């Protein structure tokens, strides 16, 4: 990761609290302006939990949802949140040694018909002696107080029976050293036990709503396994992006859910300042659009704006990931755009610039992005602020325009901690000339032959 050192240090403390089991009853809120790496920090925490986790063979579940996603599912809101929570809780189930004890009813040992013949030289190296080898196979019939079972025997088992001189009528005890580890989530257990199709339901995706009685039985069984050492609970991470899109009912549900023993680590992210809580009177406002009682349970981590050096490093990494060559001047130019506009807008210009560079590669250019390509892409694709300026200038030409509503939204956003928009006029001017040739508006970009 690049930048956000303070937030990453805070997440490091959270990671230590999780490892020591001292995060119960708390949630984490990542609050900051758009494009400041809130989602990346949450995913970094999940990766660190998997790398440093003490659960052998157990991956820490990581579930990510959007606040608006809750309202688009074909189930009620609390059921959708419950399924997301239980997807984020893993259960490590261990099936250990099984002891079989019973009376020997029958022992059958024979050799298979497909014997193999080997020719081996004798000690004088003059003659070849033939030896016939065949793998022993057999069956053992044991009678217990409950049933009579037939077991297939291998070479080692037959040798052990012959060494012990086991006969019909003897009582034997066999240890089956077979340890199997299953790593599932609570939601997967819910689905398997609530649908006739069982495990196949997980592949269809049509899980629907799950009965509360089924979950109660699953919780009791998991608790029983934990007490006898057969199962281990693995609290995962539930990351809710755009948490301000949830309503009061959802917030109340989450407030109660994080108090449960079977609760994952809840991480929420928002870019809103003081705004209305969804599902309440519009006059009721709260920091980040979250009720005060839930905020009181949160450890709030703020993300700051990236510095110029950090912006440049992020854009450089993105160019390397997309296999794009970018000149130093163009990289500085994109960094300037990221400072004056947004980081996301600057990153979105990388591929259009690359396409423009490829088109001009035949004119003495190797396909490397130059300042002229960045200027051309900046002119073709406007950012939010220039788009808003255009709307303010030509709003009467649009259908169903409401200039008063736009003015109110802008005035409200400038009063919050994290403004949604603030657009000074002529914020960034690229009209100055450069040495390289900039394509004119009438020059075709795509040839149609």
Short account of what is shown:
With 449 residues, the protein is of the alpha/beta class. It is 38% helix and 21% strand.
Would you kindly provide a written description of the structure presented here, covering whatever features stand out?
There is one protein chain. With 449 residues, the protein is an alpha/beta fold. 38% of the residues lie in helices and 21% in strands. The protein has helices at residues 5-19, 38-52, 77-87, 155-164, 186-194, 201-204, 212-228, 248-257, 292-295, 308-321, 328-340, 343-348, 350-359, 371-380, 384-394, 403-413; strands at 27-32, 62-66, 89-95, 98-110, 116-121, 128-133, 137-143, 148-153, 171-176, 180-185, 231-235, 237-241, 265-270, 274-276, 285-287, 298-303. The protein folds into 3 domains: 5-92 and 183-303, P-loop containing nucleotide triphosphate hydrolases (Rossmann fold, 3-Layer(aba) Sandwich); 98-176, RuvBL1 DNA/RNA binding domain (OB fold (Dihydrolipoamide Acetyltransferase, E2P)); 308-413, Helicase, Ruva Protein, domain 3 (Orthogonal Bundle), CATH 1.10.8.60.
